[in-house]
Specification:
By secondary structure, the chain is of the alpha/beta class. It has a single domain, classed as Bacterial extracellular solute-binding protein, family 7 (D-Maltodextrin-Binding Protein, domain 2, 3-Layer(aba) Sandwich), CATH 3.40.190.170. 50% of the residues lie in helices and 17% in strands. The protein is built from 15 helices and eleven strands. The protein has a six-stranded mixed β-sheet. The radius of gyration is 23 Å and the shape is globular.
């Protein structure tokens, strides 16, 4: 009897040791998830949900460090770090076109009409499969899905109510030829600048304004130095969910499945949070006495008409630009 009990206790101890060993081994699945989005941005909330769900579902096998709000560096730095594998997961916008020019065509002006249309275009993986070119081959980084930066609006230190107002505007643009061309078309003086320098540049009037979605204007605090906005909705900006390929391939099959399943849930959540947050951000800005001008149909059409030269530039310089416009039109 004593021997049987001893064997039973010994067996239980080995089982527990094995379980603890697997947990310890699984604890080596550490990853850093970075973005440039501010603390209150819906994408940051989605990142927080990803961390909570994956750590819980894996019983602590995954240990996740979040670095939103440019904590890992600006967008350009984040792009490089995820390629090196210093970061394992990241949210990055259209600047990844520097590694694959076709991606520069994703943010063409006035090709996405509204939230329902955006979901049809960007959710499900088909868009990225068709129009990511050789991004993964060139970088070793995989685009696991597209979430939302959102519909870009224009903030300024003076009101923009006509096309003439654009002509006296010095606007900060991302470090991107595509946005330079769009704002040249509108008649502004485009000034490329990293996002990390933008608040001070607007506060000191080095630039008159910038373009970003409402959620970003709120989360980055730019409303504090920009009293006017134009609801131009000139570009819908998707954000790529990037995963370092070596990191993903190095996960055991069960951990890889758990990682990807949780990431897919996070992508869906991010879309829901972003659409809801746009309305909440508008209310926040109005409560802070930010003047938001809604263009009438005539003004909207004038902005679209001004895109003739930018579209010609896209077609001459961005592979697949026309095919991307046609794809978006087919989803209306």
């Amino acid at each position: 009897m004593f021997r049987s009990r001893s064997l039973l206790l010994l067996t239980i101890c080995f089982m527990m040791a094995g379980l603890l060993g697997r947990t310890a081994a699984a604890g080596t699945y550490r990853l850093i998830f970075a973005s440039y989005f501010g603390p209150s941005h819906p994408n940051t909330k989605a990142m927080e949900s990803f961390k909570e769900k994956l750590e819980k579902a894996s019983n602590g096998a995954f240990r996740i460090t979040l670095k939103p709000n440019n904590e890992a560096g600006g967008e350009e730095k984040i792009m490089e770090l995820v390629k090196r594998g210093t970061l394992q997961v990241a949210l990055v916008g259209g600047l990844i076109k520097d590694d694959e020019p076709m991606i520069g065509g994703w943010e063409q002006p006035f090709i996405v009409d509204g939230w329902e249309h955006a979901r049809k275009v960007f959710i499900g993986g088909e868009f990225a499969d068709k129009f990511a070119g050789k991004y993964t081959e060139k970088t070793g980084v995989r685009i696991k899905g597209l979430v939302v930066n959102g519909f870009r609006q224009i903030s300024c230190n003076f009101a923009i109510t006509t096309m003439d107002d654009f002509r006296r505007m010095k606007i900060r643009t991302p470090l991107s030829d595509t946005f330079i061309q769009i704002f040249k078309g509108l008649g502004t003086n485009p000034t490329p600048m990293p996002m990390t320098e933008l608040y001070t540049a607007m506060e000191t009037k080095v630039v008159d304004g910038q373009d970003n979605p409402y959620s970003t204007v709120v989360s980055m605090g730019w409303w504090e130095v920009q009293p006017y906005m134009l609801e131009s909705r000139h570009v819908f900006s998707p954000t790529s969910v990037l995963v370092n390929g070596k990191f993903e391939d190095g996960l055991p099959e069960d951990m890889r499945k758990l990682f990807n399943d949780t990431l897919a849930e996070t992508i869906s959540l991010a879309w829901d949070l972003a659409e809801k947050d746009e309305g909440e951000s508008v209310k926040f800005l109005k409560d802070k006495n930010i003047v938001i001008h809604i263009p009438d149909n005539n003004f909207k059409q004038q902005m679209r008409d001004a895109m003739k030269d930018p579209y010609a530039w896209f077609d001459a310089n961005v592979p697949g630009a026309k095919a991307i416009r046609d794809y978006c039109a087919s989803k209306r």
